[in-house]
Specification:
The complex is a heterotrimer of chains A (about 475), B (about 425) and C (about 160). Chain A is of the alpha+beta class. Chain A is built from 17 helices and 19 strands. The radius of gyration of chain A is 27 Å and the shape is globular. The N and C termini of chain A lie far apart (about 90 Å). Chain B is mainly α and about 425 residues long. Chain B has one domain (about 5-425). Chain B has helices at about 5-40, 45-70, 75-95, 95-125, 130-150, 170-185, 190-195, 200-215, 220-235, 240-260, 260-270, 280-290, 315-325, 325-350, 355-380, 395-410, 420-425, and strands at about 150-155, 155-160, 165. Chain B has a three-stranded antiparallel sheet, with helices on one face. The radius of gyration of chain B is 22 Å and the shape is globular. Chain C folds into two domains: about 1-55; about 60-160, Tumour Suppressor Smad4. Chain C has two helices and 13 strands. Chain C starts with a helix and ends with a strand. The chains are: A alpha+beta (about 475), B mainly alpha (about 425), C alpha+beta (about 160). The interface of A and C includes residues 1, 2, 3, 126 and 127 of A.
């Protein structure tokens, strides 16, 4: 009787003890696993308190041109942007109400010089009175960026240009853009704009690739060692569904190279069945389709149509880029770059280096391999094939270098298409690759996108040498 | 049969040594922390602030010392409460010196009330043990008055203004309710025969809880429920009734969720505060940011930004403390509440007089439940309830009622000398 | 007051090293001190409690004295424990509020008590209706108990044991 009562009271004691001890454990867990993210969060005012008194670091292009800087005034520091519209998606906005985007966000810690969150780092910072932010140098060449924007201006779409040997992004355009300086005032109608100006199409726009997918399918075909000869009769029927070529043309005897030159859909529909879904999926994966691409800005994951046990019709369609595959322009520029670079896809980089206000080096970014898409011999073979493609369709070509690449025309809506071009230009000691996509066009990829690519290639040939 | 006197003597000496160390620690803590706080709020420095600080340190020291001389029973309760209060007052003062000074006044009142309650019971203790209906009536009356005349502050209709002063009757209802449960179980036989036994207790409790829900005081309702359930677990023979209550609780909570908008809102905020980070979710998010910015030892007094936490001085004082004094301090506070609960339970175990046995259990549970609910809410483990930490947060009514409850607990801890025991029997 | 405030500003708030002022250094140092103080405080309290518990034998289970039931349980139509540990004071009776509560109608509400005084246990009958027997003899007032004494409360017999 009394002992039972005693037991019950002890039970209460144990329960409450466990409760409070769990809370203590949770506090430790919180500190270890959740605290850092919360402390650095966008909405955490503590990260803003620094800003009016901190001389936020500059953002520069690869040649030292200032893209963003902080200037002092009576009310503290204000942010000045040299190209608020042209570089809006890259530099990003810095708003008290709406937070930050772009490099302003992803490198916020460095720009405020609060990147050292450990005790020793903080101590050092406090002791040496670092109320000045660090300067971030981007890989972007602002001249190329402005030029690309200019070329893109009449369209909705995106351009990505990168150095295939190092992964450095030289230009990244997305149209429509927005004015990052007047963001606060215009927020509501920017948000409601149906053309989605805040979307960085280069990294997050997902488009059906259309024929540019054939590059990747070609790699799979090469690797699988199947017979590359095919007699094209203008149509290919797969499980009751008939695929045709553009303009219903039939090309007769074709091999892989001519299939690429003439963009023969039936060839790829046929060969894909021989290669098999698994192999196609594996190769696509190596090209980072369906994978997360690590980058200094947020990227969308391209989606791969390939899966084990997919139907033959789907497989055939996917092989020439129709179907459920969706890719980002960044992804395709990387893909072309990989072919040009001997099969090695380099990790895309937007930041070259970070320096302190006293100009000492804090971080230098070195090129990194992201994926080996295929072997060197096969890559070189494809590279030559793609150069043959441009030779035969010279809209993207330039004098002075042998450009390689592929156009694509992806079905969009209401009878319109997305016009693609992706390819590369070999320079003396490196290759530069690019991808251009124009939304909702009436013209084909070759007619709309290739000239833009040609202009870009010309600029690169004249102005870029790796520095 | 008795232990050798020498061992006892040695143990007593050690106790005395520990006890004076404890007093010294509290003193040092207060001195250093208030020193920093005063420096930090140097702009508003005047003679008053210095006097107040002296008052704080003096009162704490005095109450710690006096408890051994003038009260029998547990020595730990008041020293732990003093330490909790000290941590709280540091943050309060740092956030707003005016608030801090007000709190100090209430503290002085609280210490006085602590001893007053103790002595009040010492001389009238026997009288209250069967006044079940009186306590119930008082509880209901106080709540109804608040319901009818009360003003709404911060989502809860529980404040009454008398002239310049505002107070929360619900805080004092805790006291009458605790006495009600104690009287009920002390006279359990009577109720068993006449009024359906524990059903009467349940009915009364649910009535009170219902009124709390109407007023929007989710947290206090839970505390009352916890008090009832624990008393039932410990003292009621019917397991069935206990299970029924727990079932009813879940059903009731679900029903309340469906019926009351403000409860739905609280749950929504708890589940996803990011959905409305500048509106409804703002409070809890700022609390989490603050806790995340503290680190293990905090940023240091005066070096954090509690200003960005809404209600940093009351509902979220726990978060402010962790930001400036660290996760370890948060753990220490949890442990302190746990020790209070432990002491209360031990008092209950050792007390043969049924009335005080139940009373000490209920009071301990009220402290523990309130602390756990507030800490849980601030950490987003459970929804926010609008309650504050006992002894720590700004709030005159809360502080006073906590000290009264502590005084009652102190009285319930009197050791069993035969004479006293026999007198208290019914 | 103003002079004091500006004095404080000068001493504590001028930047000494980099952006550090004396206040910041003190606050940073003290934060460790505060945590240590409070945790040490808790440690001391826990030790004091532990000491308390150690000292308890005289008024907890470990006192060593207990009542052992002699009468066969099965014969009794009410709940009785086989053993009751004895504390400083133990009341015996029919009422539920007794330490040793036995729901036997022939026991008085408050029948008797066993208490510890000056190191020895005593049995005291509270003028109960049916009386208490110590080793067969009626108990009047308070009588001292020794090991192996037999206590009888109407029909219920206990052995008083002092175990060590």
């Amino acid at each position: 009787m009394k002992t039972k009562n005693r037991h019950r009271i002890l039970f209460l004691l144990v329960t409450v003890a466990v409760l409070f001890l769990s809370v203590s454990v949770y506090l430790v867990y919180f500190q270890l696993f959740q605290a850092d993210d919360l402390a650095a969060h966008n909405l955490n005012r503590r990260n803003y308190i620094d800003e009016t008194v901190v001389d936020r670091g500059n953002i520069l292009d690869r040649n030292g041109a200032v893209l963003a800087e902080s200037v002092p005034s009576e009310t503290g520091y204000t942010r000045l942007l040299t190209y608020p519209v042209d570089l809006a998606h890259i530099v990003g906005y810095n708003s008290v109400t709406y937070g930050k985007s772009g490099i302003e966000q992803s490198y916020n810690d460095y720009l405020l010089n609060i990147q050292d969150r450990d005790v020793v780092g903080r101590l050092r910072q406090v002791v040496t009175d670092d109320s000045q932010g660090n300067h971030v140098t981007l890989s972007i060449d602002h001249r190329l960026q402005l030029y690309a924007n200019q070329l893109l201006a009449p369209y909705l779409g995106s351009i990505v240009v990168l150095d295939a040997s190092t992964g450095e992004v030289l230009a990244m355009s997305s149209n429509p853009s927005f004015d990052s300086v007047s963001l606060d005032q215009n927020w509501s109608w920017i948000i409601e704009d149906q053309t989605a100006p805040l979307l960085n199409r280069a990294t997050q726009g997902l488009y059906i690739p259309g024929s540019i997918m054939k590059i990747i399918s070609a790699v799979a075909i090469e690797e699988s060692g199947i017979d590359q000869q095919y007699v094209d009769q203008g149509q290919e029927t797969v499980t009751g569904y008939t695929f045709i070529n553009y303009n219903n043309l039939a090309y007769g005897e074709v091999d892989l190279t001519s299939a690429l030159v003439h963009s023969v859909n039936t060839y790829f529909a046929n060969k894909s069945l021989l290669v098999g879904a698994d192999k196609m999926a594996e190769v696509a994966k190596r090209f980072m389709i369906g994978e997360v691409i690590p980058f200094d800005l947020r990227t969308a994951r391209s989606s791969s149509a390939y899966s084990s046990g997919m139907s033959e019709v789907d497989l055939a369609a996917a092989a020439f880029g129709q179907g459920t595959t969706q890719v980002t322009p960044l992804n395709m520029a990387l893909a072309s770059g990989a072919i040009a670079n001997g099969g090695t896809m380099m990790k895309p980089q937007l930041v070259k280096e970070i320096r302190s206000p006293q100009n000492s080096l804090i971080r230098r970014v070195t090129p990194e391999v992201l994926s080996q898409v295929t072997s060197r011999p096969i890559a070189d073979e494809l590279k030559a094939d793609l150069q043959t493609v441009v030779e035969a369709n010279p809209a993207a070509g330039v004098w002075g270098a042998v450009v390689g690449g592929k156009t694509g025309t992806a079905e969009s809506q209401d009878g319109l298409v997305h016009a693609w071009f992706t390819g590369f230009i070999p320079l003396e000691d490196r290759d530069v690759s690019l991808a251009v996509v124009l939304e909702n066009q009436t013209l084909m990829g070759g007619d709309a996108a290739s000239p833009i690519a040609a202009a870009l290639f010309q600029w690169i040939l004249n102005n870029y040498d790796g520095n | 049969m008795r232990r050798p006197r020498l061992a006892e003597f040695a143990a007593r000496n050690k106790q005395r040594e520990y006890f004076s160390n404890v007093k010294l620690l509290t003193f040092m803590f207060q001195l250093l922390s208030m020193g920093l706080v005063l420096l930090n709020s140097r702009q508003s420095l005047n003679v008053n602030t210095l006097v107040f600080t002296g008052l704080l340190i003096g009162l704490t020291y005095l109450s710690n010392v006096l408890v051994m001389r003038y009260t029998k029973g547990d020595n730990y309760l008041i020293i732990i409460a003093n330490m909790l209060f000290s941590i709280g007052i540091v943050m309060l003062y740092r956030i707003n010196p005016a608030l801090g000074q007000r709190q100090l006044l209430f503290y002085a009142l609280g210490i006085a009330v602590f001893y007053a309650s103790y002595y009040f019971l010492k001389y009238t203790g026997r009288f209250w043990q069967n006044k079940t209906f009186l306590f119930l009536g008082l509880s209901v009356a106080m709540l109804l008055v608040t319901l009818v005349f009360g003003r709404t502050l911060g989502g809860a209709t529980n404040w009454i203004g008398v002239g310049n002063v505002q107070f929360q009757p619900s805080e004092f209802t805790k006291i009458t309710f605790a006495f009600f449960i104690a009287a009920f179980y002390a006279n359990h036989d009577f109720f068993q025969k006449k009024l359906g036994g524990s059903l009467f207790l349940m009915g009364a409790t649910y009535l009170l809880i219902g009124i709390f829900f109407l007023q929007g005081e989710l947290g206090t309702a839970v505390v009352f429920f916890a008090a009832m359930i624990c008393a039932m677990i410990a003292f009621d023979k019917s397991r069935l009734l206990l299970a029924a209550n727990i079932g009813l609780a879940f059903a009731g909570l679900y029903l309340a969720y469906l019926l009351f908008d403000h409860i739905q809102v609280r749950f929504d905020i708890w589940l996803d505060p990011w959905a409305d980070p500048d509106g409804k979710g703002y409070q809890i998010l700022q609390s989490l940011f603050a806790i995340a910015s503290g680190g293990l030892f905090g940023r240091g007094i005066g070096l954090g930004s509690p200003g960005s936490i809404p209600l940093a001085h009351s509902d979220f004082i726990f978060a402010s403390i962790i930001e400036e004094m660290g996760i370890f301090m948060g753990i220490a506070i949890s442990l302190l509440y746990l020790i209070v609960f432990y002491r209360g339970l031990k008092i209950s175990l050792a007390q043969p007089n049924r009335f005080y046995k139940v009373l000490s259990l209920v009071i301990s549970m009220m402290f523990a439940a309130q602390a756990a609910i507030v800490i849980g809410g601030v950490l987003k483990l459970i929804p926010l309830t609008g309650m504050v930490l006992p002894f720590m947060a700004h709030g005159g009514s809360s502080l006073l009622s906590s000290f009264i409850l502590l005084g009652v607990l102190q009285y319930s801890s009197i050791e069993q000398y035969p004479e006293v025991e026999l007198e208290d029997e019914e | 007051m103003d002079t004091i405030v500006s004095l404080i500003e000068r001493i504590f708030y001028t930047k000494l090293i980099g952006s550090l002022d004396l206040y910041t250094m003190l606050a940073t140092l003290f934060k460790y001190v505060f945590v240590i103080i409070v945790l040490y405080f808790i440690y001391l309290i826990v030790r004091m409690i532990y000491l308390d518990i150690e000292q308890m034998p005289s008024d907890s289970r470990g006192s060593g004295a207990y009542l052992h039931l002699i009468t066969q349980q099965t014969k009794l139509p009410f709940d009785v424990q086989r053993e009751y540990p004895l504390y400083q004071i133990n009341t015996i009776g029919r009422d539920a509020s007794n330490h040793i509560a036995i729901a036997y109608p022939y026991l008085s509400g408050k029948h008797a008590s066993i208490f510890l005084k000056d190191g020895s246990y005593y049995i005291e009958d509270h003028a109960s209706a049916n009386g208490t027997l110590l080793n067969g003899q009626k108990v009047d007032g308070a009588l001292p108990l020794k090991n192996k004494d037999i206590l009888t409360f109407v029909d219920v017999e206990f052995l008083f044991m002092v175990g060590e």
